[in-house]
Design brief:
mainly alpha; about 60 residues; about 60% helix; 3 helices
């Protein structure tokens, strides 16, 4: 399966922050930028995982 076009890290970071701070939903942001909503949701999920990892949080509930 071919990969889609790569998006700059800065674009992904800004999009992720907009969704995480509830300025927009993943679907709204995806529609505005002609993206697949699942792509945006994946960016948010990866960012959430990395934030938790950096801060030493484990598991879904954040229990160490």
């Amino acid at each position: 399966m071919p990969k889609g076009k790569p998006y700059p890290a800065e674009f992904k970071a800004r999009a992720t922050i907009e969704v995480m701070h509830a300025k927009k939903t993943a679907n709204e942001l995806a529609f505005e930028h002609d993206l697949n909503p699942n792509l945006v949701k994946n960016w948010v999920a990866k960012a959430t995982f990395e934030i938790a990892r950096v801060h030493g949080v484990r598991g879904r509930a954040g229990v160490q």
